[in-house]
Amino acid sequence: MPLHETLLSDGHFEAAIMVIDAALISAPQHTELLSKRARLEIHLQPLKAIQTFSECFEAGGGSAEDYLFYGQLLFYEAGHRQASLDAISHAVDICKPAERFEVLLTCAFNKVDMGDRVGALSHLSEADSLGQLDFFCVKQLGELHSTAGNVATAVAIFDRAAAMEPSDARIRQQRGACKDTLGDPIGAIEDLNAAIQLGLDNALTYKYRGVANMQLGQFEAALADLDQAVAKEPDHLEALLWRAEVNSRMGRIQDAIADLDLAHGIRPLTDHDQQLRKHYLKLLAESDAGVGPSADTAHDMSNAEGLYRQANVKRGQDDLAGALSLLDQAIQLQPEDLRFLQERANVRMRLFKYAEALQDLQILSAIDSTWDTTFVVSMSSVL
User: Fold this and answer.
1) HEC string of 249-317?
2) Which of 114-128, 176-190, 202-216, 295-309 shows the lowest mean pLDDT across its residues?
3) Is the model's pLDDT at 376 over the cut of 60?
């Protein structure tokens, strides 16, 4: 055994580096020695290891494992995210067939840490085609598909994970959320009930179940769930916004306004939510004045704004077909108002008209480049 390897096996890293340095005097571009020196320096001088790995690569050396080490050092020690992603991707390009599965797994989880979830999904999907993923990897693959909006694929992968670990509450929670997006609120509630029974009774689980109950028209149950979510996490923005929606449908306008105000204290309301709050205030004022907002004459039906506001009233009464008809008329009169398109997409989804809802969402994203397209991608994957 060479002296530097003997010293390394005994844990004498500094002495081993000195022996390698002596050998490099006569062969300064010996790539194997440079690789070994860099790996030793990881333990002692991480930034120096980056330089030594660079010298190794410039001399024509470097294995896939070397590039993995190099990429990790660039990210965790030097903070160079893009360079680290490039190095890790190169490791996949040059790895040997026999090591490809393990290299792909390592690259995938490194890229998750580095925020490149698209790259991570690509690597983990290829690894899934090459070998048997363990539970943790299957779970991560499902999460990546869910984040990318591939909810149908995510459900199928979470099915695999649940078969491997039936008592994992997080899998049930994630699968339940995906099922609700797919238009299966009953299946969602079954999974979310299981998640709670298995101990994952956090705000996120109750928020997901509250939304699923709302989709079923079970408003009392939805409100109870969203109350639980807010009680467990008072600054849970989405739970507050959904609770406002449920309160409005139950005719509890003052409570809906209060929820929007709480949400605004966490993060400024979007233009849509601000308009919604104004609408609720108007309904409240009409109620205090003894004007019945449920009548079709409660708003001026000759203009788009009046039609839009009356559509919100219809939606609060759970008359979704009536709301949709009014929104169609509002959009004919004023097609450039994005609020009308967004509201019609919401109503169409609640009527399970997913293809038509997707058309509205695609128009929104085409007109306004700043509009969040995440759900458009999600809907596309479903259809």
Assistant:
1) HCCCHHHHHHHHHHHHHHCCCCHHHHHHHHHHHHHHHHHHCCCCCCCHHHCCCCCHHHHHHHHHHHHHC
2) 295-309
3) no
| Secondary structure class of 268 (helix, strand, coil) | coil
Global confidence as pTM: 0.69
Task: Please say whether the beta carbons of 261 and 274 come within 8 A.
Answer: no
**Distance, CA of 259 to CA of 277 (rounded, Å):** 10
What is the tens place of the pLDDT at every residue in 314-361? Answer: 766 678 888 899 889 989 998 888 778 877 887 887 787 878 888 887
Q: Does residue 84 register a pLDDT over 60?
A: yes
Contact yes or no for 122/150 (Cβ under 8 A): no
From residue 229, give the alpha-carbon distance in Å to each of 183, 211, 234, 253: 22, 11, 8, 20
Helix axes 169-181, 151-164, angle to 10 degrees: 160
Residue whose token pair is 């204290």 = 265
How far is 20 from 52, CA to CA, in rounded Å?
Answer: 12
- Tokens representing 141 are 């693959």
Q: How far apart are CA 284 and CA 253, in angstroms?
A: 7
* Phi, psi (deg, nearest 5) at residue 158: -65, -30
Tokens of 64: 């896939």
Q: How far apart are CA 132 and CA 119, in angstroms?
A: 20
Pair 91, 107: CB distance under 8 Å:
yes
HSE-CB at 221 with a 13 A cutoff on CA atoms is 12
